[in-house]
Amino acid sequence: MIKSLYTAATGMDAQQTRIAVISNNIANLNTTGFKSSRAEFQDLIYETRSAPGGETATGINAPGGLQIGSGVRVVSTPNQVSQGTLQQTGNPLDLAIEGRGFLSVQLPNGETAYTRAGALSVDATGKVVTQNGFPIVPNITTNKDGVNRTIGVDGTISATVPPASVPTVEGQIGLFTFPNEAGLSSIGRNLYQESIASGTATQGVAGTAGVGTIQQGFIEGSNVNIANELVTMILAQRAYELNSKVIQTSDQMLQSTSQIR
Predict the structure, then answer these.
(1) Inter-residue contact 97 to 176 (CB < 8 Å)
(2) Fewer Cβ neighbours under 10 Å: the N or C end of the chain?
(3) Is 13 in a helix, a strand, or coil?
């Protein structure tokens, strides 16, 4: 009965973590380029009192065994890399990635991060930057006199600089892919960094094999499915209640045992 108390406690702790993951997903329902996560569970070590297939008599083996588990834990919270809904903004420097790929940005400490949030701007020096002011990589510097700026599906940025009437190419936005996008490390501010699990980033050209295309005047919304999150939240709540019921039952059994004279 003491073991059941600890086992049920691991279940309650795991469901609390699951609820924390769900709450973060729901909180970021309107976050540009956000990728939701889910809690993955793993059972804990088993106490083996009788090994499966153990010998019960000479030449006779048991078809099963006697093993008692120790509970559960959350082993990972992988990112869900499905496409978010594209939302039209009309802003010429907004872009959405349709398909695989991430924008690369340079952080103030010199490190590289990746994002799907394509709400871009131009800073005081003309560099194309994110809403946090981080320049995209490769760096693109625009002409302050440029008008009618366009971004092609392959990431080429062009603008017309008066008095010329022919657009001038200002640069090309690169997209980066990973062997395992779900393994990227989330660092906040719509940013990810590569990890051992994600593999090394590979730079590609938008629209080529295995790389998504760029849609100007759109941003990618969160891929959170609110209906699924609410259903999962109900299931987590019920699982938490059942584990708490196990603790109550174990406590009642202990109470009955202590009352035996």
Answers:
(1) no
(2) C
(3) helix
As beta bridge partners, residue 157 has 151, 171
Go through 129-146 and write b for each residue having 16 or more CB atoms within 10 A of its CB, e for each that does not: bbeeebbbbeebebeeeb
Alpha helices in the chain (DSSP H): 2-27, 226-258
Side chain identity, residue 217: G
Contact 217, 92 (CB under 8 A): yes
CA–CA separation, 89 vs 205, rounded Å? 24
Measured distance CA(34)–CA(186) in Å, rounded: 10
Q: Find residue 8's DSSP bridge partners.
A: none
- Residue recorded with tokens 């295995």: 210
**Spatial separation of the C-alpha atoms in residues 181 and 197, rounded to whole Å:** 9
DSSP 30-70: T-TT---B--EEEE--EEEEE-TT-EEETTEE-SS-EEEE-
For residue 36 the two structure tokens come to 């939701």
pTM: 0.87
Identity (one letter) of the amino acid at 116?
R
DSSP class of 141: B
Q: Return the domain boundaries, the chain.
A: 2-29+40-76+236-258, 86-220
**In this predicted model, what pLDDT tens digit does every residue of 209-249 receive, in sequence order?**
889 999 999 999 999 999 999 999 999 999 999 999 999 99
- φ, ψ of residue 11 to 5 degrees: the values are -65, -40
